[in-house]
Amino acid sequence: MEVIKVRRSIRKFSKEAISEENLDKLVRAGMQAPTATNQQANCFYIVRKRENLDILGDKLQNARMLKDANAAIVVLINKNKLNKPTMKSQDAASATTNILLEATYLGIGSCWCGIYPNVERMDIIREVLKLEEDFIPFSIIALGYPENENQFYFIDRYDEAKVFRD
Ligand SMILES: Cc1cc2nc3c(=O)[nH]c(=O)nc-3n(C[C@H](O)[C@H](O)[C@H](O)COP(=O)(O)O)c2cc1C
């Protein structure tokens, strides 16, 4: 699939706004991800307010690009929906990847910023977005149209030494 090859972490964005329709497509892509025992405990918090993006970009050292982003999606885990708690990270990572790939398909730049299991980062997200205790913030995905052209390009990472065969 071409989007797998050309997806890049994009950290500089233009001022062009992402439509509600496209944000909806991104969330839908996240919800299509596989989950352990089909538990579907992932939830999605769409951040659109400039103030919230700026505060998060200021407070999260690893996500400065949020100050430049047009929107963000926080992938959350609803603790109450977990019947396989040990698999929650895999589930949320799977949803995060789906969103990155859908964004690439739509020509939207994205960057996965790691939150869980860093307690300090989790607390910042909780405080700024006023999340209830039931939700674990797993990742925040910065979103925006790339500032420059040709930001989606292929880096061939194939390494025969990492492949084992029987
Ligand atoms: C679990 C995870 C956490 C990441 N956290 C951050 C982050 O906090 N800030 C950031 O700028 N990039 C983050 N990234 C993006 C990586 O830096 C990026 O994927 C890597 O450098 C490879 O570049 P590429 O995405 O363009 O292929 C994260 C990626 C993953 C998978």
The fold-level CATH name is NADH Oxidase
Biggest sheet: strands side by side, in what order?
1-2-4-3
Instruction: Give the topology string: H per helix, E per strand.
Output: HHEHEHEHE
Count of discrete alpha- or pi-helical segments spanning 4 or more residues: 5
Average pLDDT rating: 97
Strand content: 15-25%
Model regions low in confidence, pLDDT < 50 over at least 5 residues: none
CATH architecture: 3-Layer(aba) Sandwich
The level of helicity is: 25-40%
Shape: globular
Name of the CATH homologous superfamily: NADH Oxidase
Structural class: alpha+beta
Main β-sheet, in a few words?
4 strands, antiparallel
CATH class: Alpha Beta
What does this structure look like?
With 166 residues, the chain is of the alpha+beta class. The chain has a single domain (19-145), classed as NADH Oxidase (3-Layer(aba) Sandwich), CATH 3.40.109.10. The protein has 5 helices and 4 strands; from the N terminus they run ααβαβαβαβ. The chain has helices spanning 2-6, 20-31, 50-59, 88-105, 119-129; strands spanning 42-47, 71-78, 109-114, 135-144. The protein has a 4-stranded antiparallel β-sheet, with helices on both faces. Helix 3 (50-59) runs antiparallel to helix 5 (119-129). It is globular. Bound molecules: flavin mononucleotide. The site of flavin mononucleotide has 9 residues, from strand 3.
